[in-house]
Structure formats: structure tokens, C-alpha cells
Write a structure and sequence with these properties.
heterodimer; A: 139 residues; alpha/beta; D-Maltodextrin-Binding Protein, domain 2; five-stranded mixed sheet; two-stranded antiparallel sheet; 42% helix; 22% strand; B: 331 residues; mainly beta; Porin; 16-stranded antiparallel β-barrel
């Protein structure tokens, strides 16, 4: 029975860790939650401001499975489509979002920088930041 | 100019190892708002009368942003080295670097932006990714070469509207000559020699579809006023891309190019391997040419910013059939 309880607890914990949320700085002027389309535009650098505030989108490192999940679920682009997109943007003088080493780094950056936006596991969120989108994962 | 190239190369390689370099994304120079990158391509061309190998492009890019301002500078050597193997065995080289693009952007806000300098004219889809490594094929469609000015030296005002769809209006204005001194000295190589350009572009994107319409007038140094119209459509999903652009050009009296267009399909066998088929047709009264031809190509990209391409062009006038292949890199 203890083993079953432990396995169930681990299962639910791992599920929670897998749920992603997009967070913004407390002072960020996003008062409402954003749509998938708007999050996607911010991460593709099509939308770069909110009013006069310059937005800073943060990625996890390229090998992080959470980044893959985010790109698949929110951007709806394959690895090839994203590589093609950022190669063309490099030619046009645009940079991809900043990459951070861990969810803890994303949380710390967003907490400190007014226009910052990042995605982290829901389980890692505290009340120092605002949740502006909950990622609906696709299989 | 050669000194500038040397300095840019030194900057690129000096900082290249210390930065977290990813192919096709350039490197940041120290912690400055300055990123350096570039591209090059090696080409081989063979037809009934000639065989030619060339280092077609070598270009260096520098760009960055600070607040609402951003900038981009690009210098490029075209036909850096051309080796003719047939009909004669000789070679030429041109080591001069052109001021390919040089501009400053200012974002008023998310919806409105101003660009000042020399930039790719935002006309059609192909013209915004005109370099070999970003193109689907080694060759570019004729319609992207003969209808409109590929570069504008002046200002561009862009207005974006983001709703369920994405809409953009571009307004291009040129009232001066090109800013590349080599181009202005008579070495006209990749654009019309113009001193006026007024253009309007409308782009509508929704899901996997994108539509664009362009119209404009430009004045060549002869002087001669020419007007162009261009309509473009693209559809793209994970494994397939369809692209079509068609336009015409006329002067004050009649059509100079009654039509020029293409329809292209790209099928991605895997993320690395693609097959391309393109049908092109054009009628050019200025050159007194009318033709239809097919382009059949294959592209291998071990990673996206590195491309190996081969294509065969089958022309309605058979003696113009040709084989092209290239190796191109964006760094």
C-alpha cells in the first residue's frame, strides 16, 4: 500500500512539474492573461512592446525538454520551421529570445526585469511574479 | 573598404570562440549591442556552352539594438572569384565590397516603425530572403529580378495590425541615388539604377496562409518612369510549402513586362532533405524575350544554415537548359 501511495504521489508530482506557465514581472502592465497567439508573437519577436515597455522574452536552453514542449504547444512550429525563421531573422538583424540555463534563472530574471516574460513549470511559480498564460500541452 | 572588412573579420573571429555561438545566428561582440555574422556561397553552373565555378557571395553583417533604435550594416563582395572552365579556361575576381544594406530603425511602438537607409525593398516574399542559403534553390525566379527595385535607399514606414490575423502596410520612399559608391560609379549589378522609388505593400497573414500585394513607381537614371504591380501568396505547413508570385511592369506608354511569375512547391522529405519544383513564365518587351521553363531541385541541409543544392532548369528553348549546384552557409 505504501509503495502504491508513493508511486501515485510521484506520478502526480511529475504531472505538476510538467505543466508550464508563462510568467511576467509583477510590474508588467499585462493585467489580463494573454492568448496563445499573443504569447507566440512575443516569442517570435513580432510583438516587442507592451505600450512603451520593451518586452524581453526568455527561453530555456535549446536542449531543455520544457523548451521543446513550449515550442511545440505554443509556437506550433517544428524545429525546422523555427530554425528557418530565426535564420531569416538573423539576416534581417533580429535576435531570438535570450536563453537561460534553468527555470530558477528564468524566475529570478523575470522577478527583476520589468519587461521580462518566461515559461517555467507551474510548480516553480511563487507570488513574486504574475502568471499570464497556462500552456495547454498537446500530445 | 578592405580595412573595414579586415576589422569586421577580426572582430568576428576574435569573439567567436568566447560566445555561445550557434550556426546561423552570429555572435555578440563582447557585451556590446553588436552582433556579427555573414554568409557565403560557392556555385557551379553548366549549360550547352559554358561551365563555370564561382565564389558568388561573401558578406559580413553587423547589427544590434538599443532601446527603440536598431541598426544593420552589410557589406558584400559579389563574384569574388569566377573560374570559367568552358568555352575558355580563365578566371576573374572582384574583391571590392559593396555597401549592400545600411539602415537605422526606430520603433514608435509595436504598431509603427520607421527605417532609414538602404534596405531590401519589402516587395513579395522572395526578395526579403534573397541570399543563396535562405533561398529554396540556387537560382532566383526571373520575376524577382526584372520587375521592381530589389533595394530601396530612403525610408520605409511600416504599420502593423495584430488581431486574429496579422496585417502590415509598408510605404517605401526613395528620392536619392543608391548609397553604394561602387554601384553609383557604373558597376550596376543587383538592382535597377534608380534615383526615385515610391512603393506601397500590403501583407495579410492568417494561419498557414500569407498574401501580399505591392504596387509602385520608380525612375531609372535614363531617366525613365516604370510602374510595377506584384501579387504573392504562400502556404506553409510542416512538410509542404507553396509559393507563387506574379507581376507586371509598364512605362508611361505600354507594358515593358506584361507578365512575370512563378509557382513553386517545396516538399520536405525529412527536415534535412527537400524536393523543389518551380514553373516560371515571363514576357519581357525590353529584352524582347518570352519564355516558360521548369526548375527541378533538391536541397540538403545538415543544419538549416548550411545548404547543398542542385537544380536542373528545363527551358522551352532547349539550348538554355542548365544545371546549377551550390554550397552556401549563413554564419
Amino acid at each position: 500500500m505504501i509503495r502504491i501511495l508513493l508511486i501515485s504521489a510521484l506520478f502526480f508530482l511529475s504531472l505538476d512539474a510538467g505543466e508550464l506557465v508563462v510568467i511576467a514581472n509583477k510590474a508588467n502592465i499585462f493585467k489580463d492573461r494573454l492568448s496563445n497567439q499573443n504569447i507566440s508573437r512575443i516569442y517570435l519577436k513580432k510583438k516587442r512592446y507592451n505600450g512603451s515597455l520593451k518586452l524581453v522574452a526568455l527561453n530555456l536552453s535549446a536542449s531543455d525538454p520544457l523548451r521543446k514542449e513550449f515550442e511545440h504547444s505554443v509556437l506550433s512550429m517544428s524545429d525546422l520551421q523555427l530554425a528557418a525563421y530565426w535564420a531569416k531573422q538573423h539576416y534581417q538583424g533580429q535576435r531570438p529570445p535570450l536563453s537561460m540555463m534553468s527555470a530558477a534563472s528564468v524566475l529570478a530574471f523575470v522577478r527583476e526585469v520589468e519587461g521580462a516574460i518566461g515559461y517555467i513549470p507551474k510548480a516553480s511559480v511563487d507570488d513574486s511574479v504574475n502568471i499570464i498564460y497556462e500552456v495547454k500541452t498537446t500530445p | 573598404m578592405r580595412l573595414t572588412v579586415l576589422v569586421l573579420l577580426l572582430i568576428f573571429f576574435a569573439w567567436g570562440e568566447e560566445s555561445s555561438y550557434k550556426p546561423g545566428e552570429g555572435v555578440q561582440v563582447g557585451s556590446l549591442p553588436l552582433y556579427a555574422g555573414g554568409y557565403f556561397s560557392l556555385n557551379y553552373k553548366q549549360n550547352e556552352t559554358m561551365k563555370q565555378f564561382s565564389i558568388d557571395d561573401l558578406a559580413l553583417l553587423a547589427y544590434g539594438d538599443s532601446g527603440k533604435f536598431s541598426y544593420l550594416a552589410e557589406i558584400e563582395a559579389s563574384d569574388l572569384y569566377v573560374r570559367n572552365l568552358q568555352p575558355e579556361n580563365n578566371h576573374t575576381s572582384d574583391t571590392r565590397f559593396h555597401a549592400e544594406r545600411l539602415y537605422l530603425n526606430y520603433d514608435f511602438n509595436d504598431d509603427n516603425a520607421l527605417r532609414v537607409g538602404k534596405f531590401n525593398s519589402p516587395i513579395g516574399f522572395w526578395n526579403l530572403s534573397p541570399i543563396n542559403v535562405l533561398r529554396d534553390t540556387t537560382s532566383s525566379p526571373i520575376s524577382t529580378e526584372i520587375l521592381f527595385p530589389k533595394y530601396t535607399t530612403g525610408v520605409n514606414l511600416a504599420h502593423h495590425v495584430y488581431t486574429v490575423s496579422e496585417d502590415t502596410i509598408n510605404l517605401m520612399l526613395q528620392e536619392t541615388r543608391d548609397l553604394d559608391a561602387i554601384f553609383n560609379s557604373g558597376d550596376v549589378y543587383n538592382n535597377f539604377d534608380i534615383d526615385r522609388h515610391y512603393g506601397l505593400g500590403l501583407i495579410h497573414s492568417e494561419g498557414e496562409w500569407k498574401f501580399q500585394f505591392n504596387a509602385g513607381r520608380f525612375q531609372t537614371m535614363e531617366p525613365k518612369s516604370l510602374y510595377y504591380l506584384m501579387a504573392s501568396v504562400s502556404y506553409e505547413n510542416e512538410s509542404f510549402k507553396l509559393l507563387s508570385e506574379i507581376g507586371s511592369q509598364h512605362d508611361n506608354n505600354s507594358f515593358t513586362v506584361p507578365y512575370a511569375g512563378y509557382l513553386q512547391g517545396v516538399y520536405r522529405l525529412t527536415p534535412q532533405h527537400s524536393l523543389i519544383a518551380r514553373l516560371e513564365a515571363y514576357k519581357d518587351h525590353t529584352l524582347d524575350q518570352k519564355e516558360a521553363f521548369g526548375v527541378f531541385g533538391y536541397t540538403y541541409r545538415p543544419i538549416y544554415p548550411v545548404a547543398l543544392k542542385a537544380e536542373y532548369q528545363s527551358h522551352s528553348s532547349g539550348h538554355e537548359d542548365q544545371f546549377l549546384c551550390s554550397f552556401s552557409v549563413l554564419f
